[in-house]
Task: structure prediction
Amino acid sequence: MINKNSIIDNIKTLFYALIIALIIRSLLLQPFYIPSSSMEPNLLVGDRLFVTKYSYGYSKHSFPFSLNIFSGRILFSKPKTGDVVVFKTPADNRTDYIKRLIGQPGDIIQFIDGDLYINNNQIFKTLIKSNESVYCGNSKIKVNFFNEKLPNGKVYITSYSTKNSFQNSDKFLVPENHYFFLGDNRDCSKDSRYLSEVGYVHQNNLVGKAQFLFFSSDYRIGSIFKFWDWKNIIRFNRFFEKIN
Result:
């Protein structure tokens, strides 16, 4: 005989668990999956990572389905140049992108002869590896790896194509309350350079700061359900790696 009180207790438990999960997802941590190669070599397709939702305060995009609970952004904390950030694209306010923050409000961003300039100052970069391979979609391209150092001292790895690399651009003046983002895989990234697709990102579109990986697998090799081939499919060395 089915105990009616037991069923009600189980429903309550599931309901409370759901509420707790929603609170954690909205206010603390949210997992994300990397579907593209725009942040190689730092983030790979198949990486799973956690984003802290509290890092920059909260907007409607902090909540599932971007529920319009309040307007603007509350408890706002300004992101730092060089942060790896998840945001909603301005084009549809729905799609999640992950890029590196390069320009603050009022900054001038430009590429000259393949070098990045911020406020008319060339960003120093040091060659660390030549003729490496990274993915661009499902194909591989040859790139050079550089350590790039921002004015605030932040250092990270970027990849520039050895052929037909992005050379020159107009000056991008970042509007008030907006930010300018670039992919670390500079020649395979839809980012703020492309104004009709991404462009400048309003502070209300920030979702959170990427903090660390918790899982990674290469679907190009095979499915994680092929447990006998996990040593090739799963990137164990990337587990719990902090995102720079």
